[in-house]
Amino acid sequence: MHFDVISLFPEMVISGANYGIVGKALEKGLVSLSVWNPRDHAHDKHRTVDDRPYGGGPGMVMKYQPLKDALGRAKEAYSKNAKVVYLSPQGRSIKQNLLEQASKQEQLILIAGRYEGIDERFIDSCCDEEWSLGDFVISGGELAALVVIDGITRLIPGALGAEASANQDSHVNGLLDHPHYTRPEIIDEKKVPEILLSGNHADIARWRLKQSLGKTWKKRPDLLQHKQLTTEQRKLLEEFRTEFDDN
Ligand code: 9D3
For a Cys staple, 36 with which of 64, 70, 105, 191, CB 3.0–4.6 Å? Predict the structure, then answer.
């Protein structure tokens, strides 16, 4: 998978991608990343990339032409049919299934905006999709681009260690994760749940699934709304709720 990011702060994207699983995947050549700066395509004396909004109002708007030329470079450097995504507060909220679909692409070009946004004509003519991290405000698209790169990289075969697996991730199965514990066995009188010390892997798997179902029911009932539970899962959730009512 090849990622391109169009950004006025290329170092922010490059440096952010050099850690952990994404950093390793880049080293292994499982993914690659190029960052293109619209400022390199501004040819006036001050290399202007922004201008005042027509109609007035606060802030500045990113100009069409430097974005268009930077995008052109990204496309010709890799070629193939790339998907172009503008990261913005107006976009569709990113969910796991959106990243799963996108991970099948050969090239993904991410447009990171700054200021109040970018000229609408660039969105209309040059972008295929518009994605958001959710209903909160951040200062630009670079962190969003890193989020997308990270989320997609985890889905690429070989990017996660042998012990880990992307299909064990929370949200991949539509449930929240179960609780985790590590040594020591007792901290401030709080014991690790006995079953995790039993060595019975089937019982442990059942307990974890029950905790996942219970946590999801307590914290994110919306996730269960449209999920079809198996007979086993319904039984485990019933058990959890019964024990929950008792406490
Ligand atoms: C005054 C209206 N604001 C729009 C909601 C102005 C504004 C805020 C933040 C314009 C641009 C930005 C920069 N945000 C992003 O580039 C961004 C973003 C976000 O702010 N929230 C959630 N997802 C994303 S993805 C890119």
Answer: 70
- For the chain, give every domain's residue range: 2-153, 168-246
3-state secondary structure of 217: helix
Mean of pLDDT values over 113-123: 98
Note if 183 is an active site residue: no
Integer Cα distance of 205 and 19 in angstroms: 31
Ligand 1, pocket-test mutation among 60, 133, 137, most atoms within 8 A of CB: 137
Q: Which fold has domain 168-246?
A: Trp Operon Repressor; Chain A (1.10.1270)
Question: Checking DSSP bridges between strand 129-132 and strand 83-93, what pairing results, if any?
Answer: parallel
Give the closest residue to 59 by CA, choosing from 8, 117, 9: 117
pLDDT score at 163: 62
Ligand 1 pocket member 113 (CB < 6 A): yes
Domain 2-153 fold: Alpha/beta knot (3.40.1280)
Q: How far is CA 86 from the centre of its chain?
A: 14
Counting residues of the chain whose pLDDT is more than 70, the rounded percentage is 99
22-39 burial by CB neighbour count: b if 16+ within 10 A, else e? bebbbeeebbebbbbbbe
Indicate if the alpha-carbon torsion angle 43, 45, 49, 53 is positive or negative.
Answer: negative
Beta bridge partners of 154: none
Sign of CA dihedral 169, 173, 179, 180: negative
Atom 1 (ligand 1) nearest CA: 116
